[in-house]
Structure formats: structure tokens, C-alpha cells
């Protein structure tokens, strides 16, 4: 039973690992013009081209690749091909309202930051999951001034696209993810939710990474616990089988116990019992004989006159036989 369970568990873990091993996240920086299109006069901030006149001055060391796009009431698009997409930016105080729309789909999103922190890095602006990876997709967005403080700006940093590793080598250039100048990170996550779910505009990249790490850790922990339980079960089963084979009391040979077993009907053991027990002591050449009635003392009830060693041995064996329980098998 346990060997079969071990094999089935191993096959299950192998299938589970192969299911998620092919998923990969490609990170595409905002400076990659193959996928990003910024409409209007955007400020492209890089280490070589800073923007000292821009109102927003986030820490470049905390931005992806130390670059971002800063624009006011502008628009743009992002083209990709994969099963999921995530747009990240840098939240600022009093930002613009940003509306997103995925092409050939009913998925749309809205992002607005109302927190008190001056800058929030790796902020998730938009996400779409469970997409058809066989066709290209495009995300368009439009920025408008908010009605609270009149803010008009938004900072776009990078995007992540989930693809299958097997498809990377088969895709052509152009809108293909394989042609992107980006970094790939293996992920282990649960299946994506359905398209009918409303995209979350307040989750952060850090929360996403923690979620994927927790799922992978739970799967690994469950697999390890299951393997450990099966191994312990196999060991216990083997010990139990060995214990069944050892059906004698420890230190007592079956040949010694057999003469002391009483009949099932409760009758007295045959008189041959005592005669067989009167054997020579170790190292002695004298053979014990069955004592005659005259040589037996009425007070002792057993033994031989003039043989203290034999009498003591016989007395010990009689006491052992009197206390040993009868056998019923």
C-alpha cells in the first residue's frame, strides 16, 4: 500500500511542478519603444536625461532601471502577447486620474492615488489576467485632471507580461515578447482568475511577489510533509511485520517453555516432567535417576537425598512452572 502511495505522490508532485515551471514574467522597461508608445510631450527621465523642472522628483535609485515617463493629461499604449499583463508606475501626491482599456476585451481599469506618502514605488496601475496568448493585445490609457486637487500628472515605470517559456523561441519580432529587451523571472503561482474579475488598482508589486512566493512555499511544504508521512508509514509497517514474526518471549526458548505448558483441560502434567528435569548439572558426569518413594521427604515433596544441587534446581523449576501461565494456542 505505502509503496504505491509513494509512487502516486511522486507523480502528482512532478505534474504540479511541470504545470507551473513554464510560466515566466518578462519585465519591460518604459524606455523600450517596441512595446511602449507615449502620445504627446512626455518627459523621459533617465540617469543621462534628468528633469530638474519637473514637479515630481522621486528617487531614481528606487525606480526600475532608474527611468520613468512623466506626463500631464497625456495618453499612450502598451502592446504585448501573453497570458497576463501588469502596468506599474510611481504614485505621487495629487496625481491625475488614469483610465485603462484592453483591446478586444471588456477589461478596463482606473487608477488614482489618494494616500499621504509623497512617492509610492512599484505601484500597480493596471492588470489583466487569463488572456489568450495566441493573439497580440494592446492596452491604452488616458490621463485626466482629478476633481479633488486638480492634479494632472502620472509616472509610468515598467510593465510585466506573463508568458510560457515554450513560446518564447517560437515568437517572431515586432510585438512579440521574445524580442523585448527585458529580464525574465521564473514564477510559481496558482491559475489566473477569470476575466470577469475587476482588476485591482491598489495592489502593489511587493504584494504580488509575496503572494507567488507563499503559493510556492505552501506547495513545497505540503509535498515535503506528504513524503515524510509516507516514509514514516513505511518504516512503521516494516517494524510491525518484523514484530509479528517474533512470537516468543525475549530470552526464553520454545524448547524450554514447551514442557511447562499445562493441558487445556486443566489436568496435572505427566509425571515424566520431573524425571526429564533431573539432569546433570553443568560439568558433572552423574546422571540423575527418578527418586524412589523412600528417598523423598514428606516435608519437601520433591528432590533427592544427598543431591542438594539437584534439589535446588528442581525447586526453582517447579516454582517457575507454577507461576507460568498455561498456553491456549
Automatic annotation (TrEMBL):
Keywords, in A-Z order: Membrane, Signal, Transmembrane, Transmembrane helix
Region ranges (Disordered): 170-204, 281-315
Annotated transmembrane regions: 214-237
Segments of skewed composition (Low complexity): 170-194, 281-299
Biased composition, class Polar residues, residue ranges: 195-204
Keyword DNA repair: no
Source domain of life: Eukaryota
Leader sequence segment: 1-21
Keyword Signal: yes
Name of the protein: Mid2 domain-containing protein
Organism: Roridomyces roridus
Amino acid at each position: 500500500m505505502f509503496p504505491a502511495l509513494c509512487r502516486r505522490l511522486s507523480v502528482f508532485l512532478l505534474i504540479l511542478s511541470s504545470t507551473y515551471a513554464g510560466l515566466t514574467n518578462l519585465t519591460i522597461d518604459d524606455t523600450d519603444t517596441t512595446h511602449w508608445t507615449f502620445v504627446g510631450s512626455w518627459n523621459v527621465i533617465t540617469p543621462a536625461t534628468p528633469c530638474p523642472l519637473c514637479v515630481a522628483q522621486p528617487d531614481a535609485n528606487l525606480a526600475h532601471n532608474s527611468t520613468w515617463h512623466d506626463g500631464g493629461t497625456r495618453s499612450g499604449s502598451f502592446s504585448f502577447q501573453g497570458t497576463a499583463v501588469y502596468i506599474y508606475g510611481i504614485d505621487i501626491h495629487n496625481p491625475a486620474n488614469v483610465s485603462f482599456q484592453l483591446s478586444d476585451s471588456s477589461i478596463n481599469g482606473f487608477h488614482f492615488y489618494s494616500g499621504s506618502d509623497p512617492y509610492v514605488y512599484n505601484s500597480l496601475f493596471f492588470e489583466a489576467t487569463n488572456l489568450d496568448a495566441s493573439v497580440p493585445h494592446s492596452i491604452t490609457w488616458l490621463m485626466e485632471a482629478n476633481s479633488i486637487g486638480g492634479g494632472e500628472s502620472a509616472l509610468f515605470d515598467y510593465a510585466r507580461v506573463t508568458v510560457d517559456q515554450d513560446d518564447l523561441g517560437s515568437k517572431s519580432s515586432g510585438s512579440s515578447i521574445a524580442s523585448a529587451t527585458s529580464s525574465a523571472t521564473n514564477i510559481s503561482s496558482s491559475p489566473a482568475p477569470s476575466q470577469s474579475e475587476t482588476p485591482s488598482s491598489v495592489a502593489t508589486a511587493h504584494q504580488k511577489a509575496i503572494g507567488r512566493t507563499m503559493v510556492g512555499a505552501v506547495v513545497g511544504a505540503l509535498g515535503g510533509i506528504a513524503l515524510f508521512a509516507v516514509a514514516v508509514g513505511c518504516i512503521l509497517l516494516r517494524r510491525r511485520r518484523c514484530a509479528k514474526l517474533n512470537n516468543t518471549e525475549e530470552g526464553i526458548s520454545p524448547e524450554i517453555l514447551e514442557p511447562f505448558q499445562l493441558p487445556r483441560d486443566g489436568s496435572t502434567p505427566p509425571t515424566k516432567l520431573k524425571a526429564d528435569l533431573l539432569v546433570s548439572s553443568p560439568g558433572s558426569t552423574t546422571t540423575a535417576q527418578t527418586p524412589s518413594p523412600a528417598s523423598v521427604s514428606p516435608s519437601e515433596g520433591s528432590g533427592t537425598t544427598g543431591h542438594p544441587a539437584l534439589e535446588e534446581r528442581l525447586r526453582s523449576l517447579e516454582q517457575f512452572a507454577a507461576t507460568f501461565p498455561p498456553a491456549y494456542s
